[in-house]
Inverse folding.
């Protein structure tokens, strides 16, 4: 069951519909935290899409070191083969690009990349070139990514390529939609909706826990939510950022943190703003609350 997101679906259709006028090259960045529903939204959107040919790939966290692993899905779709066989035939990125363009011909295409934060450098290079010089018939690009994770090169390529750029941020689900999702999973406890804060992944974890534990359900599921939050933070932050985040949450100033870690206050400042951006938290106090929730 898919709930809510009518506004986001509408917006995706409007900005990617080739008939809607404006620039023919469009790039959409779909940004959202872990488990907020980026993949679910893409799936729903693509199921109804009847526009240009779709090329889809999902970059894989564990594949960030495999050259072209991030666009494996697209290569398989176009060439019926993975990067290893392909690289035997096509050596340079430029050649690969030519081959991709040839396969696509002059028809419009919609290139969709899920989990773009895990794109490997080779895949990023290929996409960069495509974004900078799309086909004359018009291409759309849709990148789903976690906050702060979008490769900067692709953002710059979109700017340089004169694309119409759109950013869609996936907020937590509205309480009504979250409640509907929870009850579709057989749970009717509104406290869980509040606890999950509109994150559908957390809602699912909470519902699963609820089914497993009958005693003190809310307290018991809180543990599972804490685990999910902790994993989210671990995934988002580098070990250094995590240390700095903890020191910030304990109330230390940038100057003190810099002294303790033998860094310049400016470096600490940069880390802190990156941490705030990645976690989507607005203030140092907010970070303390977030880490506190994550245990
Ligand atoms: N609008 C929705 N309606 C119903 N279920 C949803 C919705 N959005 C997400 N879900 C469910 O919540 C879970 C997490 O969603 P999803 O995998 O799409 O998150 P994500 O943003 O892609 O996370 P990640 O950053 O880990 O890739 C999935 O089980 C998904 O089916
Ligand atoms: Mg996903």
């Amino acid at each position: 069951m898919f709930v809510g997101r009518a506004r986001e679906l509408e917006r995706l259709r409007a900005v990617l519909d080739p008939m809607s006028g404006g620039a023919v090259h469009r790039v959409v960045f779909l940004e959202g935290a872990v488990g907020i529903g980026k993949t679910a939204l893409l799936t729903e959107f693509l199921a109804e899409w009847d526009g240009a040919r779709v090329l889809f790939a999902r970059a894989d966290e564990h594949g960030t070191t495999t050259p072209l692993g991030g666009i494996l899905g697209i290569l398989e779709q176009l060439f019926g083969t993975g990067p290893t066989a392909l690289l035997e035939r096509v050596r340079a990125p430029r050649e690969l690009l030519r081959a991709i363009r040839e396969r696509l011909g002059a028809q419009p295409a919609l290139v969709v990349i899920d989990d773009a934060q895990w794109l490997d450098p080779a895949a990023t290079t290929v996409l960069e070139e495509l974004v900078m010089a799309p086909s004359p018939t018009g291409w759309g690009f849709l990148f789903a990514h976690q906050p702060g994770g979008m490769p900067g090169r692709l953002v710059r390529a979109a700017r340089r390529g004169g694309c119409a750029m759109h950013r869609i941020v996936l907020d937590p689900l509205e309480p009504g939609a979250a409640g509907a999702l929870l009850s579709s999973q057989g749970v009717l406890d509104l406290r869980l909706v509040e606890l999950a804060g509109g994150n559908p992944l957390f809602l699912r974890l909470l519902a699963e826990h609820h089914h497993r534990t009958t005693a003190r359900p809310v307290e018991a599921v809180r543990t599972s939510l804490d685990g999910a939050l902790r994993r989210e933070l671990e995934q988002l932050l580098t070990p250094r950022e995590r240390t700095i985040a903890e020191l910030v949450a304990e109330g230390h100033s940038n100057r003190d943190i810099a002294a303790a870690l033998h860094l310049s206050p400016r470096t600490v400042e940069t880390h802190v703003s990156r941490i705030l951006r990645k976690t989507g938290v607005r203030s140092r106090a907010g970070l303390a609350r977030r880490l506190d929730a994550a245990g």
User: Anything to note?
Assistant: The domain at 237-295 is CATH 1.10.10.10 (Arc Repressor Mutant, subunit A).
